[in-house]
Amino acid sequence: MPEMEQPKWYILHTYSGYEAMVKDSLEKLIENNKLGDYIVDLKIPMEQVIEEKNGKKKVVERKLLPCYVFIKMIYTNQIWYYVTSTRGVTGFCGPQGRPIPMKPEEIRKMRLEEYTTDEVFAIGDTVSIEDGPLKGFFGTIKELNSAAQKAKISTTMFGRETDVEVEYVQIEKLDGAIPEQPEEE
Which has the minimum average pLDDT: 28-42, 61-75, 82-96, 155-169? Predict the structure, then answer.
């Protein structure tokens, strides 16, 4: 038997409001046709937002990208046929409906997979933020949460000390003191 290639992440386009139904249908398809070796994972990225109704605040989950389902699979023509003939699927994102695998930085940005780092951090370490909205900032680690792979960092924003929480994969340890932050105008 030939060695199978590694599964890759692809983007499926669905009808509006059909994301959960498509995910459920694909999970049943995997189970019924024993496709677990080919279709490895399905995700609908969600975000938690606070909505206010009748004066009460409530945390609800909302789709980050409506009309899209992310699928990690080994691409074959048969798998393509199974997936695209699923009710609610309009096709893959790519030229002529043929899927293009997502790039590693896109996967990390969409948080489709958990990333860990081998770097060992300690309270008091000087770090630079290498990814995310605070990219380019420097700070000192104040707290570590190894289970969640997150660190609380004290950094200077608008001339004030501010504590921010970032993931381990977003920071890099520096040797020595914190470089000067650029001045805001």
Answer: 155-169
- Residue type at 82 in one-letter notation: Y
Average pLDDT over residues 135-152: 86
Helix %, strand %, coil % of the chain (to 5)? 20, 35, 45
Q: How many CB atoms lie within 10 A of CB 169?
A: 17
Contacts 24+ apart (CB under 8 A), 83-88: 83/12, 83/26, 83/29, 83/39, 86/22, 86/25, 86/26, 86/29, 87/18, 87/21, 87/22, 87/25, 88/14, 88/15, 88/18, 88/21, 88/22, 88/25
